[in-house]
Structure formats: C-alpha cells, structure tokens
Amino acid sequence: MASTSLSSTRTLHGFAATWSAFWAMVRKEFAIMTRYPVEFIASFAQVFLIVAVFSLAGLTFADENGRLGQGPASGVVIYGFVLFLFLSDTLWSIGYNIRLEQKQGTLEQLYLSPASKFASLVSRVTTILVWTGLLCLTSAWLMTTFLGKLPLANPGLGLYILIMSLAGTFGVGFALAALTLRIKEAGQTLANGLQFLFLILCANFFPFSALPAGILAVSRCIPLAYAVDAFRSTLMGYPPGFPELAPIGVEIVIVTAFGILMPALGFWAYRRAERRARMTGSLSEY
Amino acid sequence: MVELLYQPSLRSKLGVLLASARMRLITISRYRGQLALDLVMPIVFAAMPILLGRATGGAAAADNFLRNTGTANYVAYMLIGSSAFTIVTYAFWHTGYWVRWEQETGTLEAIYLAPTNKLWLVAGVALYSMLRSLISATAAYLIGSAIFHVNPFQGELLIAVAFVVSGLVPLLGVSFLFGALILKLKQANALVNLMQWGVTLLMGVFFPVAVFPPMARVLAWLFPPTWMVNGVRSALLGVGFFFGRWYRDMAVLWAFMLIAPLLGAWVFARVERNIRRNAGMGEY
C-alpha cells in the first residue's frame, strides 16, 4: 500500500535530525518574513491601533476623575490582550499555513521529503511567536500609558501558565489543521469563527463576571477560559474576586492537563487526517 | 491608449455592472459559514467594549458613558460603531482589494482584454460590497439590540438611514484610493488589516472623535465615514452633530460624495496606467 511504504521513510529519526529540520524551517520562515517589510511594520502598527481603539473605548466609561471604575481593569484588559495575541497565532497559523501550501501546490512536495512533519508544523508558528512576544511587550507598555499602571506579581508562575496555555493551543491548532485537510476552505472560516467565539467565551477583554450566567456556564467547560483567568489573576496577585472560575490550584491543574494532553491529541488527529488525505489522494486537492 | 472597437450602450454597461455583482453574490451564497460570521462578527466586536464597560463601570457605567459621550445608551452606541466598521471594512476588502484579488487568481489580464470599461466592473463589485455590508450591518444591529435588550428604533430613523446611504458613495471613493495604494505597494493583506484598524480609530467606532488631539481630529473629519457614524449616532441617540444641525453635517457628507469618488477614480487610473506602462498588471 502506498501509505505504508511512505510511512517507513517518512522521517529522519533522532532528536538531532528533527532539531536540524526544525531550525532550517524556522530560518526559512524568518527569511520570508524579512522579505515583506511592509507586512512586518504593518503588524506592529496594527497592534498599536487595536490597543488604542479598545483603550479609548474603555475610557468612555471612566469617571469624572478619568479613572476606570471598579476592579483591576488595566490588568484584566492588558493580560487578556497579551494572551489573545499568542493564542490567535497558535490557533489559526498552523491550519492557515497548510492551506497556503495547498494553494501554492507545494504541500505534496513537502510530504515527499523525509523531514519531521511535527517540526514542519511547529516551525510555522515559532517565528510568529517570537515576533508576537515583542509585540506583546510593546502593547503592554502602550496600554499602561492609556489604562494605568500594570500589576506584575508572580511572574514565574505566570510564565508557566503562559507556556502551558500555548502548548494547549498548539494542540488545538493541530486539530484545526486536521480539519482544514478535511473541510478545506471552510476550515479557515471555522478558525476565524472560533477566534471570535473564544474572545467572548474566554473573556480576554473583560472579567468573566460581565458574562451572563448561560454563557458563563459554557465558558466553564473550556480549558482555555481557565488559562486566561489563571494567567491574569496570577500576574495581578489574586485581587479580591480573582480567579473567577475556580480556585487557583484547580485552574493550574486544568491548564497543565490542557498543555500536556491537547498537543498529543491534536497531533494524533492531524496524523489521522493526513494519512486519510494521502490515501484518498486529496492532499493537494483544494 | 487602447480604444474600444465599439461603444457599448448604457444598457450593456448596466448589464456588466449587474452581472459582476450577481456573480459575487452567487459565489458568497455558497459559503454559508462566512455569511453567518458576517452577522456574528459585528456583535462580538461591539460586545467587548460593552462587557468591559459593564464590568468596570458597574452601576455607574451608563452615567459615566453619558458624561463622556452625550448618551447613556452605550449598547446602541457601540453597536452602531461596529456596524459602521463592517461597512467600511467590506468596502476596503472587496472594492479596494478587487484588483489584487484578480491578480492572485490569475484572471486580471483576461479582464483587461475584455472589451468593457473596468469602471463598470468595479461598480459591480462595489454594489455587491454595499449590499452585503448593509444587510450584515443592519441585521447585526437588530440582533445585537435584541441580545442586549435595547430598542433599535429610536430617535430620527429616516435621518439615520439618509446618513448611511449618503456615506456609502464617498466610502467607495476612499476604497478606490486604497485600491491604488494596494496596487502600488502590493502587500495587500497587511495593508488591509492595518487600514481596517486605522479607520476604526479614525472614525471613532467606539468613542467620540472629540477625545483626539486637534491634528488627529482634523484627520478624522477628513475621513467621510466619521461623518456617517456621527450622523447616525446623533440621529438615533442624540449625541450631537458636528455642526449642530443634521442638514449641515449632511451637506459636508454630500461634498464628500462629489469629491471622493472623482479623486479616488483619478488616483486609481493614474496608478493603474503607470503599472501597465512598466511591469504590467499581471505581475504581483
């Protein structure tokens, strides 16, 4: 069977080979990124504009002294936005890049190479994540000038929660990439829709207390919502009422399980969809 | 300069316009998920500042909002802003992006070989964009009002509709200018994304442009959708017209209606001519 013979030579084995392939792909992605300076600068300016729009929107609710009413508003919005930037990268970039390779007609060639497919998928997001990290630092600084001083407690635990959240969304990204192989162009619409849905359900720009009870019940079923809550509550030093969804110990357990299990589950789903596409000959069909 | 071998009648020109719009409407009708997103996105977009305001402002949210904007109805204020954002964004993505889209799909050179004026083709794209955005924006405003329990039919409804309709024509002109920029710089996705947020800021989607420093305020006033959004908000929510009376603001919008399409079409034609003389339209 064609798929069996392919699978026996599909990767160069060993950590060194995988790392080498991954590094080469990251460098290639970085080289492409630098060839589009307008895009590079535009993405930076875009973050500034988003920050300005939502900060000015928030300030329309400020009291007569220019302060934003109750609660630690700056921490909720800024840390929520930081996590949103990272999450949106990991959520849709993998599927988007698979789709791009299909459109360019290079996906089949990639699958003929014996390099690690996992490295290929992760490399698409790595360069973007580095760039997003820089954007986050800048946007956090910008937002503090609009919304006030930013609390920064427990940075170590905050970083751990961020890493686990990213690992989990990598898993969701793999699963969405699998779906892209199955449902093609509709996969991108679905990814866009999910991104918007998560904005509300994971309450990136506002506290969970603002959500109606019915929607909050749905939020409680999404591990990503616990990641957002745990991340900002930890960095804000657990002010009264935070975390909102569960005690912090429970939230950390949920986020850790999400970060460990979801990548494995997502990659398994991707390999299944990929195998199916190769057997049915639909890998490059779009 | 290539002259057409025959002069098409007005009837055949209108036929081109309608066929262009119809083709796009048929195409989008095949993407039902995308159509559903069209309705959801403006509501989600407006929900973020609404929920943020409710959470941070608490019981004083409406009072604070009234002091800062001139209306206590922040839900309708944000929904109008996000609906206007939809109309502007669609104009940019559809009309401004049109040439780039045809370049990417490899059909632009074929279109340029067709014995028809490109202006009628673009007018068809604009008609499609306006229809789709108007339907999405109106439906999102009505559904959003129902979700957040506000009355969507308040104030001077007819004046509000007049501001929306009058704002569409100058917006078309601005999208031509933007299309010229895309043709020139090529990196369309990045530019559209950037411009999308740039105009969101400029037209005061979620806040009054009065918060801007003087220079930025002048820039905002030079952008026609700013007048459209403020006109609709003033008519429905009474936040106050820029020049005190609705007909004065409408007069400004009508001035834009004359200037913007002509300026946009002229700049677009110039950029297009330069490109055809150099590398050609097929190169991207």
* Helix/strand/pairing category of chain B: mainly alpha
Shape of chain A: globular
- Label the structural class of chain A: mainly alpha
How much helicity do the residues of chain A have? over 70%
N-to-C series of helices and strands of chain B: HHHHHHHHHHHH
Keywords, please?
heterodimer; A: about 290 residues; mainly alpha; 11 helices; about 75% helix; disordered N terminus; B: about 280 residues; 12 helices; globular
In short:
Chain A is mainly alpha-helical and 286 residues long. Chain A contains eleven helices and no strands.
What does this protein structure show overall?
The complex is a heterodimer of chains A (286) and B (284). Chain A is mainly α and 286 residues long. Helix content of chain A is 76%, strand content 0%. Chain A is built from 11 helices and no strands. The longest helix of chain A is centred in the last third of the chain and has 33 residues, at 248-280. Residues 1-9 of chain A have low confidence and may be disordered. Chain B is mainly α. Helix content of chain B is 77%, strand content 0%. Chain B is built from 12 helices and no strands. Chain B has helices spanning 10-29, 32-57, 61-69, 74-96, 98-105, 108-113, 118-147, 157-185, 188-202, 214-221, 224-237, 246-277. Classes of the chains: A mainly alpha (286), B mainly alpha (284). At the A-B interface, α3, α4 and α8 of A face α2, α3 and α9 of B.
